[in-house]
């Protein structure tokens, strides 16, 4: 938030759904697969493809799980109880992918720095947008 503009609070009504991004490497892929199958069995969730490489903001291999607001209360603790050594990024989907993966992120287990190139690209984009806004106001 920009300083001096007064605090605003975003409503949870802005949340359309959630993603869990389950990060794994060679040593944790087996457990990630077991957890994936168990979630599929227990919950009506949408499972994304296995991504055996860093992609987008994600600094390591991962797969995505999409779930609803109502499922959050069951899925978060399920992941906490069963993550073992996995790192899991959970974020709301509010329509701004950058903010959702950064400021709005919640971690199950320790956090992992997101892909630096992706961060820079998006920060540059926000910086340009802010500059354009200032330029527009000066017209
Ligand atoms: Zn996501």
Please give a quick description of this structure.
The protein has 139 residues and is of the alpha+beta class. The protein contains 4 helices and 5 strands; from the N terminus they run βαββαβαβα.
Question: What does this molecule look like?
Answer:
This protein is of the alpha+beta class and 139 residues long. It has one domain (16-137): 2-Layer Sandwich (Alpha-Beta Plaits), CATH 3.30.70. It is built from four helices and five strands. The chain has helices spanning 29-42, 72-82, 97-101, 116-137, and strands at 17-23, 46-47, 62-67, 87-93, 106-108. The chain has a five-stranded antiparallel sheet with strand order 2-3-1-4-5. The longest helix has 22 residues, at 116-137. The radius of gyration is 17 Å and the shape is globular. The relative contact order is 0.18. Residues 19, 21, 64, 91 line the site of zinc ion. Zinc ion is lined by residues 19, 21, 64, 91.
């Amino acid at each position: 938030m920009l300083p001096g503009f007064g605090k605003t609070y975003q409503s949870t009504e802005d949340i359309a759904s959630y993603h869990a991004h389950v990060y794994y490497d060679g040593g944790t892929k087996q457990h990630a697969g077991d957890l994936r199958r168990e979630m599929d069995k227990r919950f009506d969730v949408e499972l994304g493809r296995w991504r055996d490489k860093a992609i987008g903001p994600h600094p390591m291999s991962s797969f995505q799980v999409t779930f609803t607001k109502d499922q959050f209360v069951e899925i978060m603790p399920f992941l906490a109880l069963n993550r073992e050594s996995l790192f899991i990024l959970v974020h709301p989907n509010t329509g701004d992918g950058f903010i959702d993966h950064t400021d709005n992120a919640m971690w199950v287990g320790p956090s992992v720095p997101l892909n630096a190139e992706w961060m820079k690209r998006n920060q540059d984009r926000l910086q340009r947008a802010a500059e354009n806004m200032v330029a527009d106001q000066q017209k």
